[in-house]
């Protein structure tokens, strides 16, 4: 008697069918595990979506607070601006807009003739671009004003020629040297700045100090 053949079509991919049935068999045996895993993925995805929505809303609210601070500063309402700033720091101190608030705090301090290093130190650590170089220069200015000229000079020396504020930092460095009595070294720096016509203001300032 002729042995019965399996009803397989000529073009059927046996390997593919074997894989499909293998997957089906696995799902059937581990249905609860697979279902729990899928539910976990859905929960995680939903949680991430919710977090992104909350972050976006917080950012929008934080932006409104910063806009209000800017308006108060433009109207020279420094006391109100500082109150709004303190509220911002309590509510949105963990957002990426915190660095803007720190910059406003520095401005308010300058307007009130309060020279506080703390916001500048924090802002320097928050900034990831060359703008941190400008904050470093401001910190050097504050440290020198406090009488810590050694640390001020170290900060200024870290601002190299590639930085946008190199010339202004060098000017401050030379002024500190002259104040310390190091006239020869200060004169060298002032001569270099004087010959740099790309920075006319600092060139003229250097001439005044030669």
UniProtKB/TrEMBL annotation:
<dbReference type="Pfam" id="PF09976">
    <property type="entry name" value="TPR_21"/>
</dbReference>
<dbReference type="InterPro" id="IPR011990">
    <property type="entry name" value="TPR-like_helical_dom_sf"/>
</dbReference>
<feature type="transmembrane region" description="Helical">
    <location>
        <begin position="31"/>
        <end position="50"/>
    </location>
</feature>
<keyword id="KW-0812">Transmembrane</keyword>
<protein>
    <recommendedName>
        <fullName>Ancillary SecYEG translocon subunit/Cell division coordinator CpoB TPR domain-containing protein</fullName>
    </recommendedName>
</protein>
<dbReference type="InterPro" id="IPR018704">
    <property type="entry name" value="SecYEG/CpoB_TPR"/>
</dbReference>
<feature type="domain" description="Ancillary SecYEG translocon subunit/Cell division coordinator CpoB TPR">
    <location>
        <begin position="26"/>
        <end position="192"/>
    </location>
</feature>
<keyword id="KW-0472">Membrane</keyword>
<keyword id="KW-1133">Transmembrane helix</keyword>
């Amino acid at each position: 008697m002729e042995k019965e053949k399996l009803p397989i079509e000529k073009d059927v991919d046996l390997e593919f069918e074997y894989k499909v049935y293998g997957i089906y068999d696995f799902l059937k045996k581990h249905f609860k595990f697979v279902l729990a895993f899928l539910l976990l993925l859905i929960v995680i995805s939903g949680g991430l979506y919710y977090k992104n929505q909350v972050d976006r809303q917080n950012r929008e609210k934080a932006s409104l607070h910063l806009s209000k601070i800017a308006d108060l500063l433009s109207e020279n309402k420094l006391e109100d601006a500082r109150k709004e700033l303190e509220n911002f720091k309590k509510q949105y101190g963990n957002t990426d807009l915190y660095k803007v608030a720190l910059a406003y705090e520095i401005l308010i301090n300058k307007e009130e003739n309060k020279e506080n290093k703390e916001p500048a130190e924090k802002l320097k650590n928050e900034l990831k671009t060359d703008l941190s170089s400008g904050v470093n220069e401001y910190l050097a200015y504050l440290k020198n004003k406090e009488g810590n000229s050694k640390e001020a000079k170290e900060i200024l020396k870290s601002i190299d020629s590639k930085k946008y504020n190199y010339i202004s930092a060098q000017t401050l460095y030379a002024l500190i040297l002259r104040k310390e009595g190091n006239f020869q070294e200060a004169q060298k720096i002032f001569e270099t700045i004087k010959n740099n016509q790309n920075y006319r203001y600092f060139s003229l300032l250097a001439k005044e100090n030669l």
